[in-house]
Amino acid sequence: MNPAPTEHADADPYTPHDGDRRWRASHYELRLDYRVSTNRLEAEATITATAVTALDKVVLDLHGLGVDRVDVDGQRARKASTGVHKLTVTPATPIAPGDPFTMHVRYKGAPRPLRSPWGQIGWEELTDGVIVASQPTGAPSWFPCNDRPDDKATYRFEITCESGYDVVANGELLGRERAGRGTRWTYATTDPMATYLATVQIGRYRTHTLRDAGAGVPVTVHHPADLTAAAKTDFGQVPEMLALFADRFGPYPFPAYGVVVTDDELEIPLEAHGLAVFGRNHVDGEHGTDRLIAHELAHQWFGNSVTLGRWRDIWLHEGFACHAEWLWSEHRGGDTADDLAARARAGLLDQPEDLVVADPGPADLFDDRVYKRGALALHTLRRTVGDDAFFAGLRTVTDRHRHGTVTPEDVHDAFADAADRSASEIAAVLAPWIDEPGVPELPTRQR
Known about the structure:
The protein is 26% helix and 31% strand. The protein has helices spanning 228-234, 238-249, 290-298, 315-331, 337-349, 368-385, 387-400, 408-419, 423-434; strands at residues 23-35, 40-51, 58-61, 66-72, 75-76, 79-83, 86-90, 100-109, 114-116, 119-126, 129-133, 153-162, 166-169, 172-179, 182-193, 200-203, 206-210, 219-223, 257-261, 270-272, 275-278, 307-308, 405-406. A hairpin with a 4-residue loop joins β1 and β2 (40-51). α2 packs across α3, α4 (315-331) crosses α6 and α6 runs antiparallel to α9 (423-434).
């Protein structure tokens, strides 16, 4: 019998019950028939995968949904059993290491978010629609998967629901057509995507396209009808943000960018692959959330294209996105990055100095100190090596690890090459903010 994923020495200690490193997915094809009125889902998932080790069982992550049938390579599985957060499949024939295989899963139920140390995550009903916010472990609330951030795959979604709703998912909209009593929406993404970034957004939305500002990236905004004017104002600067970040970080990594504004209020915005989701409370028509808009957009580079392999390295997402907020403010003639860094440092002095960003622990994964200290580490590096080398380093990170997985050591190497320094020198510059709990002084800017 294969050991449970939690017994693997290689399991992520922050999410020890999620994912299985004995196999890798390369493509998910999801066909979802969903009724908004009853929160009822009938679905099929076809997963193309490869065995890393010999498999007499394949363990997938799936939560709260019933499984009707599983086929492996066209043959009905000898056994398919569901447990707490898991679907365990025994194929008719064991799978040899390195062999490709395909699983077809028919499943159904009333999807609901998972309770986790980070709150309710995954598929969640809105007042009139659906939001999917899966970071870090909510993907199994709506499809069977290998729920690991380093196991990226391509996706195709066919989503059918009542015709009064708009459906937004990752990737390119390939088609929309009548299907029985509803409408079927088909999307596909050909760039590898982590499971937690897969999303479906359902609501009664208007859609408009923003005028390009030079980055060559189509931008669409989906929003409630009564927020049309405010959404056009607040998100009207996204093309300019794209142009700035493309200059600083390298080319935008996806074919297009979309924004969804839900009719409900949300506690925080969230990013998904090629998308960002905001609540109506984040739209005021007065640019009141420009900082958040910049933050979520920056995640398309740092988090969505370049993705951590272990959750302890969350600063590689959030520190970079927080620093991008400062770059946008500086670009628009607001507070400079120096001003915002000094303010962030002063704020840290009023908080406990007991968090190490390099390993904050699961409970503090999304602590604001992780965001701010990560951004301050980058700002310290910028002051130390100078703007030319710093931005060249950012572009090197996104180029080398485009649509892949990144480690802190990869970041050290990229900046070392850009700044003509050793990786150990770069690590030493970052260490007081990343590897130690104190609040160091900021260095004098290098010109």
